[in-house]
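Hi R.,

Here's the chain you asked about this morning:
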Amino acid sequence: MEKGGDGGVEALKRDAACAAVDRFVESGMTVGLGTGTTAALVVARIGELLAGGTLREVRGIPTSERTAALAREVGIPLATLSEARPTLTIDGADEIGPDLAVIKGRGGALLREKIVAAASERGLVIVADASKPVTVLGEGPLPVEVEPFGWETTLEAIAALGCEPVLRAGPGDAQHPFITDGGHYTADCLFSEIPEPASLETEVKLIPGALECGLFVGVARAAFVAREGGVEITEAGQHFS
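And the predicted structure, written out as tokens:
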């Protein structure tokens, strides 16, 4: 276990982000850049190392417009998937379950996050604080990105899988739905638990109008989880204690 920081959730997130970047990112790489508060710390760390000369010629493929703006701000050159494939993607997670199956997407960018992660040669590296590991996935809602046309019927079909789906409202505006960068809606689906995430992922994606769900199964190669005593690194095939 690597030595941690000075405590507090933000400090723990920073510890995890720095540990993952320092361990995996090398000069000349193209890196998939996730979305969310923890992923923003990854972007900041890469920018810091580029500015200091420790890293050179690192490009980022952002998973959202927010991440793209932050990357430009800290001096990370950007690329698209038509120009390059990421060596790996570093991103946060909402829940980390057994075998590194994770839930992502509560930050509103799950479709682009999954596209970039799936295109990554070395897979997805998760960074998180100690609140994210769970014994069984499903403690919070599972996001599903849906096509706006016919969203009502899409949510009815998702509900038939045994959950309570709710269309996510826009920030500060409950009268209008949240819109992703791709122009889609997001349904937040609360299951009692998700003991078989791979099966549920398949079932959700068979529903017309359900473009992608926030279950990332078999994609993560490692998770860096920062606790008060240090950063715990779990590789794929291991389990959290």
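The chain has six helices and 15 strands.

Let me know if you need anything else.
M.
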